[in-house]
Design a protein that fits this description.
Layout (H helix, E strand, L loop, with lengths): L17 H7 L8 H9 L11 E2 L2 E2 H16 L25 H13 L8 E4 L7 H4 L2 H7 L4 E4 L2 H6 L2 H9 L6 H12 L45 E5 L5 H18 L10 E13 L12 H5 L6 E10 L3 E9 L5 E9 L23
Antiparallel strand pairs: 1-2, 3-4, 5-6, 6-7, 7-8, 8-9
InterPro entries: Alkaline_phosphatase_core_sf, DUF229
Pfam families: DUF229
Length: about 375
């Protein structure tokens, strides 16, 4: 994951498993792993071993064993490790069950061996399910923006600082971000568990990141937390007619917007046209704070402009049959603005082989 695109010029840590996994990729036929995984996901096995294994050993177990060695080698010395496994979950929903028992045994070893007595364990993901069948539903759009984040705190820390487990439980029902995870790591690094006792004033400007050990305000909004509008989950959606004039106007605006972005690539990318509008929703936002407003007024409390409307459009373009979704805002004057960015929600494979720009690549169909 972290070596994709720019990657690292130098090895980023003392212990680094990428060379090992690059060597593992040389086993079997090249460029067949994705195809074999697709077959396995459909319960079709054509090889003597799984694409998720090297001979009789699952690839994820190599990492778990490496992790155990790392933990035991350094004993009680202070240490930090970031491990990232995505092969089981990135392409398909069901393959992760193959590692259920291995994960259970690994966490049981951590607990039974006393490794959790003086360690903080975090299990997390960077996003939710990306598979098209799930992602392209209203529930899937929300799930995709709310990845797993679980944390285990040592018993003696919870006993000495009872506000920490109390706040962690409260914060499971609050709006949280990775900025908060960063602030939590700062608290752990500095062994400062007292500042999280301070209660934040909801009527004042909130910091971008708030440690999970501190109670996160119940009324925190996406604006407070610096969450881009197209990633905000504090919305509800009303289905609208995809054949309406409004729907067609929004989709046409978005295709024109995409073509304008692609024009910076010269004539490398084909001009896109709408082939179908798949979904169209009216977006109802929660009450949002405006951090730049300091004076008191009713408008500041409610923090929205009643004349501004928001819509979510999901549409397909040709050539390439790309599926896009985007949120736009519009006012009574009829002008549109894209909120966040236009997101590609189906795979683009090698359609954009002719360019390298990371923002334009999901949008481009090479001429």
């Amino acid at each position: 994951t972290f070596s994709y695109w720019k990657g690292f010029k130098e090895q980023p840590s003392m212990h680094y498993m990428r060379p090992f996994y690059l060597a593992l990729d040389k086993f079997g036929l090249p460029n067949t792993r994705r195809a074999l995984l697709a077959l396995e996901n459909s319960n079709i096995n054509i090889g003597s071993t799984s694409a998720l294994c090297v001979k009789n050993t699952p690839k994820h177990k190599f990492y778990m064993n490496y992790y155990k060695q790392f933990i035991e080698f350094y004993g009680r010395k202070r240490k930090f490790s970031l491990g990232w496994l995505n092969e089981l979950t990135h392409e398909y929903d069901n393959l992760v069950q193959l590692a259920d028992r291995d994960f259970m045994l690994f966490f049981k070893w951590m607990k039974d061996s006393g490794k959790l007595d003086n360690s903080v364990l975090i299990v997390m993901s960077d996003h939710g399910i990306m598979q098209r069948s799930v992602k392209n539903t209203l529930g899937g759009r929300t799930e995709n923006r709310m990845p797993l984040f679980a944390i285990v705190v040592p018993p003696h820390i919870k006993a000495k600082y009872p506000h920490i487990p109390q706040n962690l439980r409260k914060n499971t029902k609050r709006l949280t971000t990775v900025y908060d995870a960063h602030e939590t790591l700062v608290d752990i690094l500095e062994s400062d568990f007292l500042r999280s006792q301070t209660v934040l004033n909801e009527n004042e400007k909130l910091p971008r990141g708030i440690s999970f050990f501190r109670e996160i305000p119940e009324k925190r909004s996406c604006d407070d937390a610096a969450i881009p509008g197209d990633y905000c989950v504090c919305n509800s959606y009303d289905q609208m007619d995809v054949g309406s004039t409004e729907s067609k106007d929004v989709a046409q605006f978005l295709v024109s917007y995409i073509n304008q972005v692609l024009s910076k690539q010269g004539d490398k990318c084909a001009k896109l046209h709408i082939s179908a509008i798949k979904d169209f929703f009216f977006v109802k936002s929660n009450l949002q704070r405006h951090r730049e407003r300091e004076e008191f007024s009713l408008r500041n409390i409610f923090g929205f402009d009643p004349e501004v409307k928001k819509f979510l459009s999901v549409f397909e373009t040709v050539p390439g049959h790309a599926l896009f979704e985007a949120t736009v805002s519009t006012n009574e004057k009829g002008s549109y603005d894209v909120i966040g960015r236009v997101n590609r929600v189906n795979r683009y494979g090698n359609q954009s082989w002719c360019i390298e720009d990371k923002f334009a690549k999901p949008l481009c169909y090479c001429s």
